[in-house]
């Protein structure tokens, strides 16, 4: 795709919008394969591949949200083919999608037509206590609480050794992130949350309304932090409707 930062798991449609997806802490671009397949040829789904995981595992991970957002704002130029686009970020990815959109707006560069912000409360001046994990044991406890990694990873020392550098960096990034005050984005938001999320309440998710000068819609799904795993079809339909397209995969 002309950039180490993006992965496409299907064929790009000739026209139609693009959805740039930002994974959660410890996650990789492949987390969005199910959503990409469900949207089919209606949307060009492109997922961000952070350094330090999967095919970029030999690169040092980045442990700072601002640095990640700065770089991704630059890398968006690699995808600039005049196609309209939106951002979809889950958990840490929601913060990164928002901060990348802020940077694009500050640069007067083409920006997303909508932000889909999933599994994350609105930014605050101080990091969330849930993000304050300082040891590997705390990181693993946080992952178990969220239910985002299969138990086999915890039991396999080799697999654990492979994923820990990225997990440490991501939790350091989100654990040190503090919102810098600024004007609301002139972009509509769609906020998505599970009704049984162990670290984000529906009320905290609804606080994103104060960060957009445009319309903000809130959608609540049954499930926990990774509700998307069980509601891919519904989320795909929601995305397609918001972007004005029709999904073609049953």
User: Helical proportion?
Assistant: 25-40%
Work out the number of β strands: 7
Number of helices: 8
Secondary-structure class: alpha/beta
Assign an overall shape: globular
Estimate the strand proportion.
5-15%
Kindly, what is the distance between the CA atoms of the first and last residues, rounded to a whole number of angstroms?
A: 28 Å
Order of helices and strands: EEHEHEHEHHHEHEH
> What kind of sheet is the major sheet?
7 strands, mixed
Keywords:
alpha/beta; globular; Thioesterase; seven-stranded mixed β-sheet; TEII; Alpha/beta fold hydrolase; 8 helices; hydrolase activity; AB_hydrolase_fold
Summarize, please.
With 250 residues, this protein is an alpha/beta fold. It has helices spanning 33-39, 65-75, 92-106, 136-146, 151-155, 157-175, 202-206, 232-243, and strands at 6-8, 18-22, 44-48, 85-90, 115-118, 189-194, 216-221.
SSE blueprint:
Elements: E1 6-8, E2 18-22, H1 33-39, E3 44-48, H2 65-75, E4 85-90, H3 92-106, E5 115-118, H4 136-146, H5 151-155, H6 157-175, E6 189-194, H7 202-206, E7 216-221, H8 232-243
Parallel strand pairs: 2-3, 2-4, 4-5, 5-6, 6-7
Antiparallel strand pairs: 1-3
